[in-house]
């Protein structure tokens, strides 16, 4: 996910353990850890794209003939993507270049316009929620 141009993967889970999100249902949920792997792979995808590597978009699994399977979801796509083992139409292999696994995690200095976001400050009522929405809209359109 791209957050104001800084690139950020953010997975938020509710504190309420009775939330339906924590209910595993094999008909609805496929490969429940997938969201974590998916967002992590977006980070790796971005690292290589910023270094001008030609790699498939993480969302383009169908273009390469992969389908979401029951229970395991896109596990096969992710495995081949991570191992640079995705077959292209001309018979070559593509995916994440393994150099991505040797690059160090990004430091603050890697972000030209690094800004600290207050992820811990959640809106506690409808008014704060509305204020946050307007703040985001104003920032998107360059208004203060
Ligand atoms: Zn995605």
Enumerate how many helices there are, as a single number: 3
Q: Give the ligands present.
A: zinc ion
What is the 3D form?
globular
Strand order, main sheet: write it out.
Answer: 1-2
Mean pLDDT: 80
Regions with little confidence, pLDDT below 50 for 5+ residues: none
> Strand tally, please?
2
Task: Please trace the helix and strand order, writing H or E for each element.
Answer: HHEEH
How would you name the oligomeric state of the polypeptide chains in this document?
single chain
Percent strand: under 5%
Explain the overall architecture.
It is globular and about 55 Å long. The chain has helices at 34-50, 75-82, 126-140, and strands spanning 86-87, 93-94. A hairpin with a 5-residue loop joins strand 1 (86-87) and strand 2 (93-94). The protein is an all-alpha fold and 144 residues long. It has a domain at 20-112. The structure holds zinc ion (ZN). Zinc ion (ZN) binds next to helix 1.
